[in-house]
Amino acid sequence: MIRLLAAAALLAMPAMARADRVAEILASAEVECAGMDAGGLSVEPGAVTPADLDGDGLEDDAVVDFAAVFCDYNLSHWHGTGGAPIHFVIDGARSRSWWAHHWSLTEFDGMRVILLSRHGSYCDSYGAAPCVQALVAGGTEFLTPVDGRPEEG
Ligand SMILES: [Ca+2]
Prior knowledge:
Strand content: 25-35%
Distance between the termini: 57 Å
Bound molecules: calcium ion
Largest sheet: 4 strands, antiparallel
Mean pLDDT: 91
Radius of gyration: 16 Å
Signal peptide: 1-19
Strand order of the largest sheet: 2-3-5-6
Order of helices and strands: HHEEEEEEEEEE
Structural class: alpha+beta
Number of helices: 2
Keywords: Signal
């Protein structure tokens, strides 16, 4: 059973529409813990952050950061050298996730940009190497370069 903190996090969401996909993500995680015989799901403060990810001026999106989500009897699940899964939920309706250490929002060139610090292997380097990925929430999908390597020569 999802602990009280999760319920509190959901109740703190001003718009129920926004909570729909967030609730699905947490419910799915709860099933995953149970499926591993790893007990219930603990959702700690900071796991769910309301945000305006698509830059439409409304804080009707959310970030679910599994750095603050645990199976009670398997604390390392969702937690590794690459950080934890971070889910970006748009309008409570759709989401995508990336494993990362941290996320941040910034404005760049007229766009709302999501920044992720990721395991160095995603930058073809060693684990602790600085590796940053930028995402933009498009109309139907998150946009990020498929290949961000420099041009030859
Ligand atoms: Ca928004």
